[in-house]
Amino acid sequence: MIDPPCTVMVNRILPELKKRTAKLLNEAGWKQVEIAEKMGVTQPMVSRYLRRENEEFEPPIEAFIGNLSERTASIIKEGGDDRELMGTICGSCFSMREKGILCEMHPVDKCRVCMNIRSQRQAVERREVLEDILSAISILESHLSEKIIPEVRINIASALGGAESSSEVAAVPGRLAEIRGEIRALTDPEFGVSRHLSQLLLSAMRIRKEVRSVVNVLFNKYVESALNNLKIDFTGFDGEKIPESWNTMCLVDRGAYGREPCLYVFGGSAAESAKTVKMISDEVERIERKPPSKNE
Description:
Elements: H1 6-27, H2 32-39, H3 43-51, H4 59-77, H5 82-98, H6 120-142, E1 156-159, E2 169-171, E3 176-179, E4 182-185, E5 190-191, H7 195-207, E6 213-218, H8 221-229, E7 235-237, E8 250-253, E9 262-267, H9 270-289
Parallel strand pairs: 7-8
Antiparallel strand pairs: 1-2, 1-6, 2-5, 3-4, 6-9, 8-9
Helix pairs in contact: 1-2, 1-3, 1-4, 2-3, 4-5, 6-9, 8-9
């Protein structure tokens, strides 16, 4: 009897993931005993991880392991719990198997088990979420005022119905980049790739059942004037904890030392959030074009 593909993940990829995660934490200044405690291994094991060379894989698998190790290290550094780590790793494993990437390490003639492992309903819903983000990207790529683009760049997140972990939230890896004055997504959206925006969206969904998406933009005097002109209400928060009760579709983090002021635009879909952002951007540009009054 042939071993199932999950054994490849456990025997080959997971050990490499742990090794690379330990190295990233060590490069970030973590001590070996701290790494051992957070990863649930011994300090001598961490020492072995740091001494060993990275194993070489074929390009698709190498890219997968590299990306996933950066995400797991980020979750650990930011105080994420085991549930979030498991959701990220398992969600990524499902994604890799569904795309056929793992087939190179588990060759079985004419096998499509991993591609068909989810139910048809789940597959359709995930595809709809990704298509929704692509629609939102096309709206934002048309044109946006540079006054609403934050240093951390814009991203779009959209979740499955009833999502409970970041592995059930899709976003754009690397966010949307500004290229020659235009906003562009350099890669297609994926599930489980934006921890901060995902956690913010999940928190909002627990309070507001109609919310399924969010887009982040810069918050400044131009954006605030645009919101007032458009009669779009917003609620302030500290950037971390969502208010227990809020009746607007926009949250504003006015920033702090080392944290950029941001506006988070929520919606029932990514396209809905993107349309609101585009409307705000257009109003910002109208405000910029408006000649100053004599009293100004």
